Amino acid sequence: MTYNAALTVKKNDQVGRYAVASRDLKAGELILTDSPFAYGPKSDSCPLCLGCSVPVDCSNLCSKCSWPVCNSECKFLSVHSENECEVFASAKVKFQPLEDPTDVCLQYECITPLRVLLAKEKDPRRWEEEVEMMETHNELRRTKPIWYFNQVNIVDYLRGPCKLNRFSEDLIHSVCGMLDVNSFEARASSGYLIRCLYPKLAVMSHDCVSNIHHTIDSNDLKVAVKAAINIPENGELFCSYTYSLWPTLIRREFLIESKYFECKCNRCQDKTELGTHLGTLKCSKCDNGVLLSTDPLSFTCEWKCTHCEFKTSAMSVKKVYDIVQREIDSVEMITGAEGIECREAIYRKYRSVFHPKSAYMTIIRTALAQLYGRAEGYTIHELPDLLQERKVELCKQLLDVLDVIEPGLTRIRGITLYELHAPLINLARNQYSSGVINKDEFRKKMEEASDILRQSVEILKNELPNSNEGQLGLVAQESYDTLKENFELLIETA
Ligand SMILES: [Zn+2]
Ligand SMILES: [Zn+2]
Ligand SMILES: [Zn+2]
Ligand SMILES: [Zn+2]
Q1: Could you tell me which of 247, 179, 138, 160 has the C-alpha nearest to residue 42?
Q2: What separation in Å is there between the alpha carbon of 110 and the centre of ligand 2?
Q3: Which ligand is nearest to the CA of 72?
Q4: Coil, strand, or helix at residue 94?
Q5: pLDDT at 1 over 50
Q6: Residues less than 5 Å from ion ligand 1, measured at CB
Q7: Is 115 helix (H, G, I), strand (E, B) or coil?
Q8: 407 shares its domain with 468
Q9: Contact (CB, 8 A) for 358 and 281
């Protein structure tokens, strides 16, 4: 099966379907576009408008089916009116309002599976050609609590009160599996996160280092998949179903629990995560040693010091990860100056616990790199040289890790390069004006900064203008054009 000239789908008894490049692909090249077969609320969702997906307080109900919408316009959006609205209205199943509309609403569990089932009836050909063969991991899921949860909240609900017994129990469970295993998160135009089922994107296997990059347009939810790096003909295409900055123990646990497979990719198998040391702890018993897993694919093995006899267990390591993750989560919403201060405090606290490149130090860096230069009292022109240097250091350390685990033209690289260029310019200017560097050195530093900004523009121009990254891309382009235009003047008059 060929989706377009860039990709060929292959099949293998062990791993199922996978995709390879049908020719040499250049970084940035479009591989495919796809529209969702169906989309809707994620699992564990609070009540959303069934038209536009914005969270609602449930005071406005659709006049036809009595389920939540924001207003009479949203009631007519086809995603609702041509899907569950008809089903709920004709079966007279009522929505039960929650006391707290921000709570998880179990009645919403059925919405997205129902939309997939109805899409199957509307487009049986696409279902047969692209969707039916999607991975469900039903064998394994059957043994987990999720199976019973789905039986009660989705299968029995749809076949009972919603009078949809034309869909078999097996089929409904399979649809739930497809969604669990294959769906991608997207931001609806309301800004709220939903899930989408993209049959063509789902063909690609997972790897903890992806070589493709996808963007989803929040207006029409179309996805565009591009090569993140150069991929040779017949090279396998990989996307990642997990957060790339997490350490192996956490990524693998997430993939087993939510995607039902055990990742054994090169990164997962490597003690140092390809040299990044994202999972590595410093030894607490000696000065120079670090703790590494003796068997990276195990959740129970020993972790040993590289220098002394000290050892601990994978479980204890995971406990440390959980503690710092909780601290990071607790400051997630804090922005501005306070946001910088509390993250720097966590950074200092754990500097002696983790390898400098570890996941959690890196996650804190990602936030700090963007806060320095933006937060009140820390805007880019207010920052003293010491903090300009701090911002440079944060960005460079982050880029070192990204080079390995998010290689190529990825969003986070584009953003980080953008963050890096401004302090480089400011530092160069200050050093020149105080006589620390001469004009030639100044010119060279300015050229370097300008080139970094250019790289950031190259990456971020791939983002859609209606996304935050796309907006940043436009700002970056403008700064780059201004810098280019006035470059000589800047050097001469500095
Ligand atoms: Zn709405
Ligand atoms: Zn309705
Ligand atoms: Zn992996
Ligand atoms: Zn040691």
Answers
A1: 179
A2: 15
A3: 1
A4: coil
A5: no
A6: 49, 51-52, 70, 74
A7: helix
A8: yes
A9: yes
- Ligand 4 centroid from CA 291, angstroms: 7
d(CA 442, CA 460): 27
pLDDT in tens, 398-419: 999 999 999 999 999 999 999 9
- Cα separation of 484 and 491, whole Å? 11
Domain count, the chain: 3
Q: What is the mean pLDDT of residues 115-131?
A: 97
Report CA(361)–ligand 3 centroid distance (Å): 20
Q: How many A from CA of 411 to the centre of ligand 1?
A: 29
Ligand number nearest CA of 241 is 3
Average pLDDT rounded to a whole number, residues 442-451: 97
- The per-residue pLDDT for range 138-173, each reduced to its tens digit, is 999 999 999 999 999 999 999 999 999 999 999 999
CA 447 to each of CA 68, 203, 372, 425: distance values in angstroms, whole numbers, following the listed order: 55, 42, 23, 9
Asked, for residue 303, whether it belongs to a domain, the answer is no
356 with 376, same domain: the answer is yes
CA–centroid distance, 3 to ligand 1, in Å, is 34
Residue 290 belongs to a domain: no
Structural domain containing residue 20: 2-35+199-239
Q: Are residues 112 and 79 in the same domain?
A: yes
CATH number of the domain encompassing residue 18: 2.170.270.10
Q: Say if residue 125 is in the same domain as residue 219.
A: no
pTM of the predicted model as reported, rounded to 2 decimal places: 0.90
Distance separating alpha carbons of residues 392 and 369, to the nearest angstrom: 8
pLDDT band at 4 (very low <50, low <70, confident <90, very high): low
pLDDT at 2: 43
